[in-house]
Every structure is written in structure tokens, then in C-alpha cells.
Amino acid sequence: MDARLLDILVCPLCKANLEYRKAESELVCKPCKLAFPVRDDIPVMLEDAARPLGEGEL
């Protein structure tokens, strides 16, 4: 994932910064407790595509 893209991407719901988790291929929003998938180096920033994070994943 391009570092410049990570600098400008924010959560589509709350506009918080996102954390990239390379091993899981996800962008994580801690305030919303959601993980957005990254498919073929393209972030899928749709609420319907995000998965809720469990307590141990924050």
C-alpha cells in the first residue's frame, strides 16, 4: 500500500486516521471499531464492506 495514500485516507464515517495492518490487508478505524479491507492494494472504503473489530483486535 502506498504510504502517500495512507497519509490522505480517513475513515469515511468519522474522518479519523486509519491504521494499516499489512498482515490482515485491512485499514483499521479505532474510534468506529471497524476494519476496511484492502483488495489488490485498493482500499474498499464502504461501510457495508467493513467488518466490526473485536475487543482483542484494537
Automatic annotation (TrEMBL):
GO CC, alphabetical: cytosol
HAMAP family per record: UPF0434
UniProt family annotation: Belongs to the UPF0434 family. In the C-terminal section; belongs to the UPF0434 family.
Protein name: UPF0434 protein SAMN05660652_01518
Classification via Pfam families: Trm112p
Listed Gene3D superfamilies: 2.20.25.10
Top-level taxon of the source organism: Bacteria
